[in-house]
Amino acid sequence: MNIYSDSSHSALKYLKNTEVNINNLLIMTGDFNIRNSLWDLSFPHHSSISDDLLIIADSFNLNLLIPTNSYPTRYSDTQGEANSVINLMFLYNGSNELNSHSIHPDWHLTSDHAPLTITISIMEENVTSTKLSIPKNSKEETAFVKEIIANLKNLNTSNITDSDKLEDVINFLESIIKQAWNKNAKQMRITKHSKQWWNDECGRALDKYRTTRSPKNWKIYKKVVKTIKRSFFDDKIQEVVNKS
Questions:
Q1: Count H helices, E strands: the chain?
Q2: How far is CA 60 from the centre of its chain?
Q3: CA-to-CA distance for 86 and 88, rounded, in angstroms?
Q4: Which band of pLDDT confidence, cut at 50, 70 and 90, is reported for residue 156?
């Protein structure tokens, strides 16, 4: 969240007096127009408005960050007025690996404010492009079915006297199927023809994520897939019901 609070502290007053519902806030940064000895060593005083800022940050579960270098963030062009630190950065509490930011006085050029930067590592999401599969009407499918049938013949179900023994039989049955599957399934590349429910909307959502690598677009892709799958299988169930 980027904030500009003017000399009357309008933004802070708004945040203090208004119930703001912002979830999963990672960073709050901006020009807060507050001088305070907590973050500006050249300023010997404490401002009461800074207490409001820290309370607001705490309400979002954010902590004030300490920069890796000590420079002013605002450069005065008024004679006799000192440079100051009024641009701050707050980070989500618990992000220990991201506990500092940098001030770049040489980047401010014609601006009277120095930029602040922080590097945030985002784990890359990999979309699986292959899967284990047994092609329909293939020799692998025939071998898979034969192996399961052969093992089922040796499955002892005569001594199921309680729920524990029933669970043992079910677990053994599961292991039979898994073993036969792993033995006969082949790695196949996923395409739009791999799943009957896959459509152009799924493809567009996946292409957009692969282009941007954005966590937001990854969530959108997953949501689209979930909706399309649910709609497809609801239609299939209704089709079976109607035929029956």
A1: 6, 9
A2: 18
A3: 6
A4: confident
Backbone angles phi, psi at 91, to 5 degrees: -130, 150
- The answer to whether 87 and 61 have CB atoms below 8 angstroms apart is no
138 and 184 inside one domain: yes
Are 37 and 58 in a shared domain? Answer: yes
| Confidence label for 115 from pLDDT (cuts 50, 70 and 90) | very high
**pTM of the shown model:** 0.49
**Within this chain, do residues 136 and 105 fall inside the same structural domain, yes or no?**
no
* Cα distance between residue 13 and residue 159, in whole Å: 73
- The answer to whether residue 123 sits within a structural domain is no
Measured CA to CA, the distance from residue 116 to residue 87 in angstroms comes to: 8
Q: How much of the chain exceeds pLDDT 90, in percent?
A: 21
Helix (H/G/I), strand (E/B), else coil: 21? coil
d(CA 129, CA 217): 18
3-state secondary structure of 101: strand
Is position 122 within any domain?
Answer: no
Provide the domain limits for residue 192.
Answer: 130-243
Beta bridge partners of 4: 31
Q: What is the pLDDT of residues 145-154, one digit of tens each?
A: 999 888 888 8
The DSSP line for 24-63 is: S--EEEEE-----TTT-TT-----HHHHHHHHHHHHTTEE
Judge if 109 and 146 occupy the same domain.
Answer: no
User: pLDDT confidence of 114, banded at 50, 70, 90?
Assistant: very high
